[in-house]
Amino acid sequence: MRVMCLLDLYFESDQEVITFCEQLVCLNKQIELLWKTDKDWGNYIQIQQTEMTSSVIQAIAQSIVYVFITYRLPKLIKRVIKEDFYYTNEDEIERILNLTNWIIEEGNNLKHVRINFKDLLLTMFSDLLIQSQTVHFDSVVNFRMNTFRRDLREIVGLAIDEFRQEEEHQAFIELLRKYIANKESKFDVIHVLQGPHFTFYKMNGKRFSKYDLKQMMKKEPLYIVGLHAEEFNLSPLIAMAPKKIKIYGDNPSEPKTLTIINVFQERVDFLPYHQFPFP
What we know:
By secondary structure, this protein is α/β, with parallel strands linked by helices. It has helices at 14-27, 54-83, 90-105, 117-131, 137-143, 146-181, 210-218, 235-240, 255-264; strands at 5-11, 32-38, 42-49, 134-136, 189-193, 199-201, 244-249, 268-272. Strands 2-3-1-4 form a four-stranded mixed β-sheet. A four-stranded mixed β-sheet has the order 6-5-7-8, with helices on one face. A hairpin with a 5-residue loop joins strand 5 (189-193) and strand 6. Helix 1 packs across helix 2 (54-83).
């Protein structure tokens, strides 16, 4: 007679239990499960295995983590934003939520983030499955995640810092837009080559020297918009205020290029490097 190892899981939400089962089947098609409805605890999943191997535990834990991240984490993040940081504007809350999700997703690639939330959650739920044969998902989420919430608060704080920087950057961009809108253009077209520093060319193909750029920028009160005469990417173009800017390169998402596009908007054309018309 075969001895079965049993693990009981309870989910109050129908959608969450459906997602859990779908995810579990995707990860391990050999796991046997029985789904019933309990009048007190909602949806009842019994997992029946001859042996609860580490791979089985891992698949179950990963499926629970997927459910948590999909359905519970956004609500928890919003609670932290509202209750711990006192934000009330729904648009701001949504933007901070999106930034928090981005930091969690990119955690391994960001030097200033010390926490990998997916690993943290996976370890937490794996340990729980090993320690107990019965897991009530809602009880765990509501009563056993104080440490997780403290760590989450740190990540939300980083997201808010990022949000404030974005706000400041957008205000800076708006200031520059207004400045060039009221400024007379000194050139019809300026050609710009991407690189560690931009290089600038007149319509006739003559390259602006560093001396040329410095002399031009000295005549402009760039300090009014927070720029200075030692910055040689954005400042020269603000001083010139050309009617048209043609940027040549291979990376339209490069940060300096994006800033130029955001400031000058329809005045900018981005073209592949091989279309640069001069030697």
